[in-house]
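Practice problem: predict the structure.
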Amino acid sequence: MRDVVIVGAGHNGLVAACYLAREGLDVEVVEPREVVGGAVSTVERFPGYQMDVGSSAHIMVRHTGIVEDLGLAEMGLEYQDLDPWGFAPFGEESLTFHVDLDRTCQSIAAVCGERDAHAYHAFVTEWAERNERVFRAFQEPPSRSLRHLWGIGRRSGESGLELSRQFLSSGDALLDATFTDERLKTALAWMGAQSGPPPHEPATADLVGWNALLHRRPPGHPKGGSGMLSVALARRFEALGGTLRLGDGAARLLVADGAVTGVETTSGERIAAREGVAACHLLTTLDLIGDEPAAGAEWQRLASKARRTLRTGNGIGMIARLGTSDLPRYPAGAGGAEHRAIQLIAPDRRALRAAHGDFVAGRAPAKPPVLAMTFSAFDDTIAPPGKHNVSVWGQWHAYDLADEDWDAIAEREGRKLVDAVDAVAPGFADTVEHLHVQTPADLARELGLIDGQVMHLEMTLDQMFAWRPLPELSNYRAPLEGLYLSGASTHPGGGVFGASGRSSARALLADRERAARRARVRDRLDRAESGARDLLRRVRR
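Answer:
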């Protein structure tokens, strides 16, 4: 019997596996795909092109300390800093966001004026400090998060009411109150929108404010592709004695008398285990248990509630993976540095709102704003010599279209993403030699992302912190003895983070330690009771 079986070899599942195996537990991870990492994986799409399947730039995990704590550099993980981290082209002018704040302010001053440059410096100083606290809250269970958020505005002298007003306002409201130039507002809004909600919605101000942290630690590209993070985690896990089973995922979670007893895989093998970690989509976890009466009434009640109330939303976006003969050439480039950055391509915030409007209506966007990533400019392992590997992400593409089918329009919509880059880098479309399109339907099929939602559940305020995925499940524990939850469905949510995996492992280990303490106390009491009985017998003699 294993100590722990983990469902899913996504990066959160692998992080949990590493922390549990490091404590000496016998852990097995089961995964249906032949490669590790889930949405943090890299595969060869065309000869010589190593292309990411999901995420490409890593931001949050670089702030957690997980990479260093698990010694992933020793396992072959090499992060290449994205500095500058952002580049926004606007015809003959452009904005460049360097890690160095003063250099960024110089770029802003040259295009937007000194007022906005000074305002940006103050904005970064204030919101970076706030988000250091928010980030610490993201790395602990929601029940302990508030202690990090308490007093978050003390340095700026803001009252609690004023601070809460700011956090509950829209990203656009924050931008309009802070800056004057629409180009700067657009670049920051577009980067802030990458969690999903559009910046015109309430409670999105901090999604824009989060950009400030990128001046403290930039996003990173793992040399060899995004999946090298997961490969390094798998290597560390196996070095710690763990067992990794690929191509044979979970078909059913086994339960008896209100407790998890193991997993049955798709091949029909049963793996008995004392505990289980479901590091997959929460709705997938519900399906793996089904209506099994042995799960108990409380589990069935919460499963029913989850199916009724959790919102995956209608997808979030799509991506075109390109093999090209050249990089995008922007009229107002940054001397080549732009190809190291995430390229924020949107003409203005009206374009963001128009794309979101099409999304809400279930239409493919007429003119999608995009992000372009050109990591082969500095990573020669992901494209053949003299060629380039370019990813173009388009936000707000509905999974469920009102009048069309994704399989019929995939190439057309992929070409729209290419054309969006070509509009600001003329001639780029002519360099495209290979095109692989991942529509929301493709993301759902390939990665098990229900409704094409890369964050599992919508990242809206009522599905974050202690409400994610439900208040009753927010501490990573299910009302089934021995079942723990991990992954993007749990706090702190989606993205390349790893915090959920570490927190769920800590919850399991803490419960084991409490059980061991109780057992030791019971053992001492039993020995004391036995000694008392022996003494009583001797006295009676």
